[in-house]
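Exercise 7. Predict the structure of Helix-turn-helix domain-containing protein from Actinomadura gamaensis.
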Amino acid sequence: MTDTLDHLSGPLDMRVPRHLAGLMRAELPAAIDEVDAEIRRTVPEYDRPAESAYGRILRVGVERLLTAFVDQVAGEAPALADRDETCRALGHFEAVEGRSLDLLQAAYRTAFHVCYRRTAAVAEREGVPAGQVAALVEAMIVYMDEAVAASRTGHRQALEHADLHHREIRRELLRALLRQPPASAEAVEELARAAAWWPLPELATVVAVAPGAPCTRSALDGDVLIDLDDPEPRLLVPGPFTPARAAMLRAALDEADSVLGLTLPLERVAHGLRWAVRVLELAREGIIPRGSLIPCKEHLTTLWLLADTVLAEEMARRHLAPLSDLTAGHRRKLTATLTEWVTTRGTAVDIAESLSVHPQTVRYRLRQLDHYLGDSLGDPKTRFALDVTLRAAALLHDDDVSPDRADEDGGSPKKAVR
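Solution. The predicted structure, encoded as tokens:
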């Protein structure tokens, strides 16, 4: 207990009756819930899912601080050492996240106001004298000041412990590794030596993060290179990518739109970043689903097909030019049939089953395609070009390659072609 609380221990014992502590303890679960919710509402940066690292830290901090205060009022031996350790840890967390104590102090003020309101309501309901309420509020203020002081200590210690020079060198090392054209091997080795405890790995995995997306830095392993201030935020995980590394990234980026790049030799990770950034763009465009740690390896074909979307659209325009004068509905039906035929080379029965139409409808459409496209369908090179063109078109323009209403020539609506 600090000198300040020692000074108040006498007045608390004399002026705050024990039964008031019992009333407060009965209110404790509801008070913890309300403080937790109010902090999330007033400090948006802390409004994270309950199961996230932020959510767990916030909940544990609120529970420990409020419980220790009630113990103090009750005259029990409060675990103020644990309280102070919790506050120092919260300050340390803010420093690791690269923030000042402004948000944490705002959270403390919110907690105080919630507790004051609840105390006043209980005092009015139970008829507690005003002098006793004033003594309790005074203790709350001192308690909050001590919590802030302990957090400030943790924040300062974290900053003193962090080697800011090495942190900047590691950022420069990351930028050198991901630079295009690549930095020289000598420059990379010099930066790695300057970082001292970052040996150059044979393999590495890059992660592309959406600008402004939340990242719990304290969840990252110490050897992960970080640059979240770049217009294209990124991380680099050295060495083989293990399940433990995957769990670490999930804890740090569980709420962030991000892409898990390929694990590549170190000299190729710049390409891995380029591909990961492109997958992130495709997710933002709605071509692939958005999410946290989208596996780049699952979208390599899409990357290849859409490496140049303007070129993909031009190829589609050129290859399907003979169908341009048809109505949109008719063109969609013929294009869907052509896509199935080119990609599967199935029979009319197989294609009909896939498109949910009658085989005779497929045969009719194939005759029409033969009429419009002529001998080009018999050329292997043309068929390959059509294959990749139609796959890219399906990714870019679902409505142009998939019929979206009942088939005018006897069929039924088709499931989306991919």
